[in-house]
Design goal:
It comes from Streptomyces pyxinicus. It is built from 16 helices and 19 strands. It is an alpha/beta fold and about 575 residues long. α1 packs parallel to α3, α1 crosses α16 and α11 packs antiparallel against α14. The longest helix is centred in the last third of the chain and has 25 residues.
């Protein structure tokens, strides 16, 4: 019988794995037949999130030149480089265009079709437009992948889970809010992929509480304004009259930082410097394990500071008071945060040129406004200042930090469980919205259709309404009949609505304290409670403790997802080859 490989999930991750299988098969799997079964109810390539059938108003949050599905020589992998076009090259777009998601879906379908065409003769791809419900089978034997609506399972020698963002059951707090809404004829929209949410019940002119100020909020903002017939005339929003009034807040109380709007020039910081493979191996080898804030964060902070100051000293030396070589030597020898702060104070005269990660993470801490209107003006100025800075190469040390963040994330995926805070911090600094979206946000604020609530936003349900407030504006509160949780569901095993993951957990797959699926950081094999890798089951994606930053990779940045895809593909091909050899013997 021909070997059988099942890949659950035909979106960008599954497509990336297929590309790596095609690239590695000539070396590892030549001359042997193989069936590859993709299981996904959504179209291959784009999958659910990047499918072509969604609103053309929704954009990617990366420049078209920063989106690629193909490897290059910067990726630390054993397989061959197979170069291919970035999104902007494929679509003949200007590199700094923010493409819509429909176009990205077409690009992903093309990548999928190309990878399929690059497979050796005898390797066949099948697409099953169904959901996978569970996996059964012995550790050392063939696996059975049970599909929705099917009476017989797909038989698989190996299974790769390449799932993307997943729906989740409500947690205790969300369930209480939902129950209150049902009892009092209110509307509660839980965390969801915004393009799939039914927003029709949000009435024109009514106040709507929105908790979450990241990319899911930006999608919500677009669908409830332009999506309802409004339009922009320069920096002015012309309403259709069908828009609700959005009252938005979050833990930080500010939107994610805008995408940087200029190109890199000159010398890049030599990364990794303080957090590289050696440091990761030392952390992994510690007998008692590691704690992120105590053991890992100081190395992250040192690395990001190095990237920032390398750029400042090499690109803007007139704003420093020390030679770079002297600063670098003393920075490396600084024994702790106090010594580092003293060095920076002596070498960087303007405090605005110093990197303060705590202040970046909590921009409104200790800030109070005397009135709600004063806060609206204050936060508009904050966003204006952010837009100005992120588009001004005089502040290119910010781009150095961005490259540092990419380097750090690429190393941390090798550690496994780093906790949820780091991923959120990375997204806030490095994965924010396009600058034009924040200009639209400002226009909506000036039009009175978007109101800022503040940091540490609280939501209560009482007296038949939802009520929101924030210590940023003491004494202010707003009432509404509608509450939208503008964020994706948390990817945890215990609350996954997808029965596939729940069944895996029940079958002994290990989870981190934060509820992520534990996998071998080398090749993605699923681990059990004793830390043993499953010989026939693999997993890649945001629900694992080896999740990578974002869905797509920026060219020439080392591509942690590419490295993982390559390692998984090579392991899978070698195992399938050995299985085929034993069957033929």
């Amino acid at each position: 019988m021909r070997p059988q490989l099942v890949i659950v999930g035909a979106g960008p991750r599954g497509t990336g794995v297929l590309e790596r299988i095609a690239a590695n098969a000539p070396e590892l799997y030549a001359g042997t037949g193989l069936d590859i079964h993709f299981v996904d109810p959504h179209p291959p390539g784009g999958g659910r999130i990047w499918r072509e059938e969604q609103s053309p108003l929704l954009w990617m949050n990366s420049h078209a030149e920063d989106v690629t599905m193909f490897t290059d020589e910067t990726v630390p992998m054993d397989g061959p480089v197979r170069e291919g076009p970035t999104l902007h090259e494929w679509a003949a777009l200007a590199g700094r265009t923010f493409a819509d998601r429909q176009l990205q879906g077409r690009y992903l379908r093309w990548v999928y079709d190309r990878a399929r065409a690059d497979l050796p003769p005898g390797v066949t791809v099948h697409h099953h437009r169904r959901r996978a419900l569970r996996i059964s089978g012995p550790r050392e034997g063939r696996q059975q992948v049970w599909l929705e609506g099917g009476t017989r399972p797909l038989l698989a020698d190996l299974v790769i889970l390449a799932l993307g963002h997943l729906d989740a059951e409500l947690d205790t707090d969300q369930a209480a809010l939902a129950a209150y809404a049902a009892e009092h004829d209110l509307l509660h929209l839980p965390p969801d992929f915004t393009a799939d949410s039914d927003l029709s019940a949000l009435r024109p002119g009514e106040p709507v509480l929105v908790r979450g100020f990241g990319l899911a909020f930006v999608d919500l903002m677009v669908l409830l304004t332009e999506g309802r017939g409004g339009r922009y005339d320069g920096d002015t929003y012309l309403p259709s009259g069908r828009e609700p009034v959005l009252y938005v807040g979050s833990r930080r109380g500010v939107p994610y930082h805008a995408k940087i709007g200029y190109d890199w020039t000159g010398e890049r910081p030599p990364l990794p410097r303080f957090l590289g493979p050696a440091e990761i191996e030392e952390l992994r080898a510690r007998p008692g394990g590691f704690e992120f804030r105590r053991d890992v964060w100081p190395l992250v902070e040192k690395e990001l500071g190095f990237a920032h100051y390398h750029r400042l000293f090499t690109a803007h030396p007139e704003r420093t008071a020390m030679a770079w070589a002297d600063f670098e030597e003393k920075y490396a020898l600084a024994a702790g945060p106090a010594e580092t702060r003293a060095l920076v104070a002596a070498a960087v005269p303007d405090p605005a040129d110093r990197l303060d990660l705590a202040a970046l993470d909590h921009p409104l801490d200790g800030t109070c406004y005397p009135s709600h209107e004063a806060f609206q003006e204050g936060l508009r100025q904050y966003v204006e200042d952010d837009l100005s800075r992120r588009h001004d190469p005089a502040h290119s040390a910010d781009l150095g930090v961005f490259l540092g963040l990419l380097s750090v994330y690429g190393q941390l995926v090798r550690l496994g469980n780093t906790g949820p805070w780091w991923h959120g911090f990375f997204s806030y600094l490095a994965s924010g919205p396009p600058g034009p979206r924040l200009r639209q946000l400002l226009a909506l604020s000036r039009a009175g259709l978007l109101r800022f609530v503040g940091a540490g936003m609280t939501v209560t349900a009482a007296d038949g309404v939802f009520r929101a407030g924030s210590p940023t504006v003491p004494g202010f509160a707003v009432e509404a009949r509608a509450l939208v949780e503008a964020r994706l569901p948390e990817p945890t095993l215990g609350r996954a609505r997808d029965s596939l993951l729940r069944e895996l957990h029940a079958d002994g797959a290990a989870e981190t304290p934060d509820g992520l699926l534990r996998v071998d950081p080398v090749d993605g094999r699923i681990l059990d409670g004793a830390g043993r890798p499953h010989p026939r089951r693999f997993a890649l994606g945001p629900y694992t403790d080896a999740r990578t930053p974002g869905a797509f990779t920026r060219p020439r940045t080392g591509g942690a997802a590419f490295r993982q895809n390559d390692a998984t593909a090579r392991t899978v091909l070698a195992l399938l080859r050995d299985l085929a050899g034993r069957a033929a013997a």
